[in-house]
Design brief:
single chain; 101 residues; alpha+beta; two-stranded antiparallel sheet; two-stranded antiparallel ribbon; extended
Length: 101
């Protein structure tokens, strides 16, 4: 609900029972991208000939991928940098006290 995608590029293939999640298929993929994906030299595998290969996107998507914002857990304690808004809110509510004190 409230989200629409260009039907020239995406086809909705599944919606969950209550509409909380939708799955789309990418359509009209260029032959150049298909050939790039099919080429074994573009696979990053844990060993030569392995069945386990991490995902990698064709160069045509580099510009789009550069704009993405990766998802993160609400509380990722290993993440360096600024505290999340959630962490700051909890600390304010506790008055600066740590858990167990």
């Amino acid at each position: 609900p409230g989200v629409s995608l260009d039907p020239r590029y995406f086809e909705e293939v599944h919606t969950t029972r209550y509409g909380k999640m939708r799955i789309f298929k990418v359509v009209n993929v260029s032959q150049e991208s298909k050939a790039w994906i099919a080429d074994p030299k573009n696979r990053i595998c844990d060993a030569p000939g392995s069945w386990y290969c991490v995902g990698q996107f064709p160069p045509a998507l580099d510009k789009l991928i550069a704009m993405r914002k990766s998802f993160a857990q609400v509380e990722d304690f290993n993440k360096a940098g600024e505290k999340s808004a959630y962490t700051r809110m909890v600390e304010r509510e506790r008055g600066g006290k740590t858990q167990g004190s």
